[in-house]
# Entry
Amino acid sequence: MHGKNNFKTICIAGTNKCAVDALKFLLKKKFNDFNIIALVDRSDDGKNKWQPSFKKFAISKKIKLTSLKELYNLDNLYLFSLEYRDLLKVNKFKTKNLFNVHFSLLPKYRGCHTNFLQIYNGEKNSGVTLHRIEKGIDTGKVISKIPFKININHSSYENYLKLLKYAKIIFEKNIYKVLKGDFKEYKQNLKKGKYFSRKSVNYKKLVFLNDFKHNIKTHNRIRSLIFPPFQLPIYKGKKIKKSIFRNKKIKLIYK
# Structure
C-alpha cells in the first residue's frame, strides 16, 4: 500500500464474502496507483464463520483498517459498500464517489431483508444493483443492474448465494468505469419500489407454521425462511430444509 497523500484511495466497506471478493480482485489486479483500505462492519469479530471474515482477510493481506472519522477527511476517495450495515452520512464526506452494491433490482426492495422479501412475495426475478450512495437509503442514481431468474423451488439461502455471485460480477464489471468516471447513471423512480426497515420483519414469529395449505403462497413463505445459518421454518415440531412446489402440491423435506 502506498503512503502518499496525493494518491487516490479505494475503500471497501463491508462484511462477508462479497467484501472479501472485492478486496481480492483489487489485490489481484494490482491497483498500484491507489491506496487500498478497508472499513469493517462492526458485526465482524475477525473470525470465519458460515461466511469468511472480511476483517480477518484484510488483516492477513496487511490492508489498513480505517474508520468513518478518517474517511470523512479524505479527498480522493472512492468508497464501495458491500453489505456494510451502518448508515453512511453522505454530507460528512469530502467526496461524492460513494457507491453501494444492493441485493435487489432497485427501486424495488430498498433497505433491509431484500432477499427474504423477494422470495416471500414470490418474485420471479432477483438481482443486484450498483448505485450511488446519497442521503436517502438506497435511493441514489443507478449505474448498473444484473438481473437473474428466481427458481420457484429455491430457498432464500440458495438465492442469497446467487446474489453473492452476482455482487462479485457487478463490482468487477464496473470498477474500472467508476474509477475513470466513464459510466452513465440515472435516477430511480422511487414510486415503483418500497423501503423496508430493519424492524419490518420478525423471523422468530414467522418460522412456526400453523395453517398449512397447498398453494404457492404457503410455499413461498416456507422457502423464504429456509436459511440454515440462522433459521429453518418449523411445522408440527419438525424443521423444514426444502420445499418443492409441483402440480399445485407442496412436498416438504425435513432436516
